[in-house]
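Deliverable D4.2, example record:
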Amino acid sequence: MKKRILAFLLTAAICAAAFAGCGNDGNTSSKESSTPVVSTGSGEAEKDPLGADFAGYPLEGDNELSFYVLLSYAYAAPDGVALNDNEFEKGLAERTGIKVDWIQMPAGADSSQAYQLMLASDELPDIFYKGAVPSSVTQLIDDKKVVPLTDYLETYAPAYYKVATSSEEMSRALKNDNGDYYGFMFLREDLYLGTYTGPIIRQDLLDQLGMAVPETIEEWDTVLTAMKDQNLVKYPFSARSGISDLLNPFVGAFHTTGTFYVDEGKVHYGWAEEGMKEFAALMNKWYEAGILDPDFLANDSNALETKILNGEVGAANSSGNTLMGYLTKMEAIGSKETWSAAPYAVLNKGDTPDFTQGEVNNIGFGGVITTSCKNIPLACRFLDYGYTDEGKLYYNYGDESNYEIVDGVPRFTEAFSNDTRGMSTMLKTYTGMDGNSATLHMLASFKSKPQVQQDAVDTWYVPEGLSHIMPASLTLTTEESESIGTEAAAIDANVKEMISKFILGQESLDNWDSFVATLNSMGLEHVLEVRQAAYDRYLAR
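Output generated by the structure prediction step:
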């Protein structure tokens, strides 16, 4: 079936988006109306070429689908390259026998408007990237825009189904509260792969000071103070994007976190707890002492990078990819700085931080099939490819020429790893791993990345620090979301304002109890009750 986009008019206010050839009345979602069959015309049993009679990839015939993504999410291509023209996507079509019309919308307000217009028109693409849709999957299911996949997976997506049912926890995480599977998610072979950020510090400055990489809050305080007192850097610790970069390395030492979390089955709100007061007191101390970059609320990624490349920063929060980017640019400009990953801070030597960054279910974004799709089994077969043995290798490594088998494990070739275009461009061009795709992220694939990134994750990965994280696939009903929407937004705004004021010394920490009382008066108890109910439903899946 031929799929074409008839119109995508992007102006200051995006007008319409229409998808021809894949739409119906928006209500067709049953397996019976969507399963392709071939009649023999002789009274023989009909065949199901995508199910029991599936002959493998690539599929024969003209098979076409449409797939909506945002430029900033999965299936990202190098700058200036359309997905329909990118090498990975073209190879994917050849390997699956399915031609995909990749519909790209830029991130931001305009894409949100275009998306709403699509929903209103009931003319949807066959597949959405889950991270590309500005509304929740729960709402899409309620509005009958997304197909529940429970009746399809075992027959039409056996590779994904095997992974999805591999454990009770995995199955629970991939279902909604009705017990339905609803999408093909980005899955990871190991919890280790869900860790990608943590604190980093100037190793050359530590060597100059004769100090070890700090582990405790006290050691961090001593090291950063020494950097300041000896005038080694302008900003001993810098951050971006407001408070989050401050929280990540340090807040777990105080037995709390900047979000909702779970402890012994009970949902808590970390911002309102005593440990957060202790964290705010530490940040205020560093701010007053000139240890903390005074521009931490205003810095964006570019501003922080500029300060780091100028040699003005002693420590920061970073991802492995970002750290590698810093080091590459430092080498290009002849910088002698060296950086090391540091462990998440604790209060006492030998302690384990209660909270670290990571994915408790090892699940990222992925693809959902819409009710406008006329060939749901075909969409399932396309998405299932990423979980097959062949598909995993292609998504993780690209074409066979990109890697070699060493001691039974795939490894990128030196030519691929050292290509002058850079590793990021190579991954975007030839693999499906620069973003969360519908596939299984192989541990071996990560082990092919530069050693500095592997060392960083080795340092940051603390399984015990994931035990309190709320599951990413926990869902609120539409009614619940509506009931707490105003309260949650007001609480969030108040938290951002007040925590910033506490850190900047614009509000005395003597007023902490008043701050918590205000949050309670704004409906925090009700928000906690709703989230507790959602968590209980999650456990009951």
